[in-house]
Design a protein that fits this description.
By secondary structure, the protein is mostly helical. It has 3 helices and 2 strands. It has a two-stranded antiparallel sheet.
């Protein structure tokens, strides 16, 4: 017997002596609880067989699945690191160029790599929804961070050569 929850009703076997009874009648479905409030697990069928409920009647309702997407925090870190390295490029002091190199080359690359790793793990889930914006931001942030890191290395080497 299938359960009421799944929308299927049990068609009783028609007896030879009572062909007037409808196959799908609302009275053929047993209520979930007895009159005293206890759950009804099994009951005798009119034909004489044992009627057993579906296993899902005992199970808790399935939790709502929230759609998941790419990790936004890691994409944001990669974009902010590339932007910071780019904004530090016109400044002159030597420690600023060292900081710009570290942020542009290392932080941007590590954040982009962690983003791609976490995104690959999230893609295995059924509830995953891809985001072209996040992937595009990371694809854009990585070369910007690396080019600004090269700019900082050039100025750092120039300052050291003086």
């Amino acid at each position: 017997m299938a359960c009421w929850r799944h929308g299927r009703r049990r068609a009783f076997a028609a007896r030879a002596d009572s062909m007037t009874r409808p196959l799908f009648s609302p009275g053929s479905i047993t209520p979930r609880l007895r009159e005293d409030g206890s759950p009804r697990v099994a009951a005798r069928d009119r034909v004489g067989g044992l009627r057993v409920r579906c296993a899902c009647w005992f199970a808790a309702p399935a939790p709502a699945v929230e759609p998941t997407g790419p990790p936004r925090a890691l994409a944001l870190i990669a974009v902010l690191a590339a932007t910071t390295a780019l904004l530090l490029a016109p400044l002159v002091p030597l420690p600023v160029h060292l900081l710009g190199y570290a942020v542009g080359a290392w932080v941007t690359t590590i954040a982009a790599a962690l983003f791609r790793r976490a995104d690959a793990q999230e893609r295995r889930r059924r509830s995953y929804t891809p985001s072209r914006v996040m992937h595009g931001l990371v694809r854009f942030a990585l070369p910007v961070g690396l080019l600004s890191a090269l700019w900082h290395v050039f100025w750092f080497a120039t300052e050291l050569a003086k």
